[in-house]
Amino acid sequence: MLIRRSGKVSTNYYNIDNQFQTESWSRPRYRPVCGTIKGKMVIKMQVRIIGGEKLVAPVAQALTEQGAAVTTTADFSGTLAPETTLVWLPNPLDPVGDLVADLVVLVDRSPAPKRIVMHGVPGTADDASPEQVGAWFQTAGTSLVMEHLYAVKMIDELEHPYVIVRTPPVTGRGGNVKGEGEPIQQATVGQEETVALITTAVTTEQYVNQSVGLG
């Protein structure tokens, strides 16, 4: 997060009576949150997590332990601080095809994000069939995959760095990292493995502009 300080902006001009005037007004001034490591000042990575699913708390904790300054919100209100990594953790059954419009508006009214990371379902990267996805999430697979495909497309078209993390339901154990086109073989994956993959997607360059799966 950023700390806001009040500042003044001034302008000088001649008015209609040819008198010299000065006007001032306030504007926000931002200072990045800093910490110290071995006595040296460092700027913390700014992360905003948006979502209401059970992964929000453990992902926030993992990123905080890595030294990030993390804020969490349930919606896309407000603006992003400069150089913020935006992490979207929707419930997989949410109407993400509609909600992504709110993400786009948030990005458009904010300074450019450092990266966008989204947690989504398989089926969007030639990794599982709609029928498989439907069975895993106990819903209409084609509709679910299409919702997430649209959200991924909209994020890609923002032309900011991004990572899509694809998993089946996070209700099991384990999971192997899979690239695009590699089949997801597990019907469920573990929370620990999912949090670790999302954390890697946020804090490293390993998966930038890729879709990475687990399972």
Please outline the helices and strands.
Layout: E1 2-14, E2 20-32, E3 34-37, E4 40-43, E5 46-50, H1 56-65, E6 69-73, E7 84-88, H2 96-108, E8 115-120, H3 130-137, H4 141-157, E9 162-166, E10 177-178, H5 191-203, E11 210-214
Parallel strand pairs: 5-6, 5-7, 7-8, 8-9, 9-11
Antiparallel strand pairs: 1-2, 3-4, 10-11
Helix pairs in contact: 1-5, 2-4, 3-4
Question: What does it look like?
Answer:
With 215 residues, this protein is an alpha/beta fold. It is globular and about 40 Å long. The chain has helices at residues 56-65, 96-108, 130-137, 141-157, 191-203, and strands spanning 2-14, 20-32, 34-37, 40-43, 46-50, 69-73, 84-88, 115-120, 162-166, 177-178, 210-214. Helices cover 28% and strands 31% of the residues. The chain has a single domain, classed as Rossmann fold (3-Layer(aba) Sandwich). Helix 1 packs across helix 5, helix 2 runs parallel beside helix 4 and helix 3 (130-137) packs across helix 4. Strand 3 and strand 4 form a beta hairpin.
The shape, in one word, is globular
CATH class: Alpha Beta
Return residue spans where pLDDT drops below 50 for at least 5 consecutive residues. Answer: 1-16, 20-42
Number of domains: 1
Second CATH tier, the architecture:
3-Layer(aba) Sandwich
- Classification by helices and strands: alpha/beta
Radius of gyration using CA atoms only: 21 Å
Helix percent reads 25-40%
Strand order of the largest sheet: 6-5-7-8-9-11-10
Write out the CATH superfamily name: NAD(P)-binding Rossmann-like Domain
Reported by name, the CATH topology is Rossmann fold
Strand content of the residues, in percent?
Answer: 25-35%
- Mean pLDDT across the residues is 86
Please trace the helix and strand order, writing H or E for each element.
EEEEEHEEHEHHEEHE
Main sheet makeup: 7 strands, mixed
Counted by DSSP, the helix tally is: 5
Task: Give the N-to-C terminal Cα separation.
Answer: 33 Å
Protein name: NAD(P)-binding domain-containing protein
